[in-house]
């Protein structure tokens, strides 16, 4: 009997607990609805009232819808227009390299000297050959003079005279050949002194004393720092926008921050690289502080057009990583969250949050309510 009474008491208590649970859930739902503004007082997402103070006309600007160019940032490299791989024309051992990395050199300055013993020996041989040829030529000329004299006295035949003239001509040709050989040997001797072909800066030093120099193997690489250009591989889809004479804005980055200079396009490759699907373009850039060959740069290249919503940069307020503007409405200025993009002249593009024709506050009122 005792167990039966306990079961009846538990059965009477269960409705009370269920009712309490239902009331608790209903109260929680009501609280959540009040917090979320279900009662009609919530603001649309991204919009919050900022007081009922009308925006001053002189502090507003319309949202402009304008067609702008799509700009693509392409990595580029600063190079010298004039670059020389200074190499000897003869094979010999290097005796001395007289320049260092970064050294300024003038045209004709000695860059390196080579072992010239073989060249001097060949020069001496050529000089001896010239002396021998000159002696033979003098002898042949003397024989020709005597043959002409004898022929005038009818003391020799015409055949003897023709032979003397042929020997004299051959001797003169031999002298000319020997003279040319001497000049060639002297040039080869001079090639053992490697000189700078123009005014520039030593960008690389690739050999040291004791190394074997060979034709086509550079000893140093020389750059002209006074003549620079920017080279970029432009995506093929953007290449139709390139034109000789047009300008690129070029951004450079150094220890002092980013610097923007202008470069004028001078060369455009007529064919695209089939592996990278790019077109090589080269643009002249004037020398500037921190601008040196090999420096990294970024060029902004037009690549198509699109419609953009543009506003003055002063209208965009930033709080941390959030961006918002004040939209002027008949009921007052209201805050609107936006997302901005690139800057075009004196306007910044708004990617989302605004529509064309809306009016925004450029100089926001000092006293605002809400959205603080």
Helix/strand layout:
Layout: H1 2-36, E1 47-49, E2 60-62, E3 64-80, E4 83-86, E5 92-97, E6 104-105, E7 110-114, H2 117-152, H3 158-190, E8 193-195, E9 200-205, E10 212-213, E11 220-223, E12 228-235, E13 247-254, E14 257-268, E15 278-285, E16 296-311, E17 317-319, E18 322-329, E19 332-344, E20 347-352, E21 359-361
Antiparallel strand pairs: 1-19, 2-21, 3-12, 3-16, 4-11, 5-7, 5-10, 6-9, 7-8, 9-11, 12-15, 13-14, 13-16, 14-15, 16-20, 17-18, 18-19, 18-21, 19-20
Q: What is the radius of gyration?
A: 45 Å
Secondary-structure-derived class:
alpha+beta
Beta content: 35-45%
Shape: elongated
Q: Under CATH, the topology of the domain at 73-82 and 225-304 is which?
A: Elongation Factor Tu (Ef-tu), domain 3
- The neighbouring-strand order within the major sheet is 3-12-15-14-13-16
Helix content: 25-40%
The stretches of 5 or more residues where confidence is low (pLDDT under 50) are: 35-57, 364-372
Task: Write down how many β-strands occur, each being a DSSP E stretch of 2 or more residues.
Answer: 21
Looking at this structure, what is the CATH superfamily of the domain at 73-82 and 225-304? Efflux pump adaptor protein, beta barrel domain
* First-last Cα distance: 70 Å
Count of alpha/pi helices: 3
CATH first level of the domain at 73-82 and 225-304: which class? Mainly Beta
CATH architecture of the domain at 73-82 and 225-304: Beta Barrel
Nearest-integer average pLDDT = 81
Sheet of most strands: 6 strands, antiparallel, barrel
The secondary-structure element order is: HEEEEEEEHHEEEEEEEEEEEEEE
């Amino acid at each position: 009997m005792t167990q039966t009474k306990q079961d009846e008491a538990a059965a009477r208590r269960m409705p009370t607990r269920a009712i309490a649970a239902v009331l608790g859930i209903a109260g929680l739902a009501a609280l959540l609805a009040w917090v979320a503004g279900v009662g009609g007082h919530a603001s649309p997402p991204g919009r919050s009232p900022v007081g009922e103070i009308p925006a001053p006309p002189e502090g507003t600007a319309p949202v402009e819808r304008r067609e702008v160019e799509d700009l693509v940032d392409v990595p580029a490299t600063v190079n010298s227009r004039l670059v020389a791989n200074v190499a000897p024309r003869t094979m010999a051992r290097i005796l001395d390299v007289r320049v260092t990395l970064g050294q300024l050199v003038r045209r004709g300055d000695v860059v390196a000297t080579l072992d010239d013993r073989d060249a001097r020996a060949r020069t001496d041989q050529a000089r001896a050959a010239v002396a021998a040829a000159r002696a033979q030529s003098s002898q042949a000329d003397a024989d020709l003079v005597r043959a002409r004299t004898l022929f005038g006295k009818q003391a020799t035949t015409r055949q003897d005279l023709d032979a003397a003239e042929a020997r004299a001509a051959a001797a003169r040709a031999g002298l000319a050949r020997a003279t040319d050989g001497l000049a060639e040997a002297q040039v080869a001797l001079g090639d053992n002194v490697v000189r700078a072909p123009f005014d520039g800066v030593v960008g690389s030093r690739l050999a040291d004393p004791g190394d074997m120099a060979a034709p086509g193997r550079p000893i140093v690489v020389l750059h002209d720092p006074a003549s620079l250009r920017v080279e970029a591989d432009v995506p093929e889809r953007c290449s139709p926008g390139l034109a000789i004479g047009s300008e690129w804005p070029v951004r450079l980055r150094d220890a002092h921050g980013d610097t923007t200079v202008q470069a004028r396009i001078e060369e455009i490759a007529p064919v695209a690289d089939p592996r990278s699907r790019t077109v090589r373009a080269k643009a002249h850039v004037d020398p500037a502080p921190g601008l040196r060959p090999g420096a990294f740069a970024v060029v902004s290249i037009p690549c198509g057009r699109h419609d953009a919503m543009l506003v003055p940069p002063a209208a965009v307020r930033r709080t941390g990583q959030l961006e918002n503007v004040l939209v002027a409405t008949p009921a007052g200025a209201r805050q609107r969250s936006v997302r901005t993009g690139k800057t075009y002249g004196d306007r910044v593009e708004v990617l989302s949050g605004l529509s064309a024709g809306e009016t925004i506050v450029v100089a926001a009122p000092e006293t605002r309510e809400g959205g603080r």
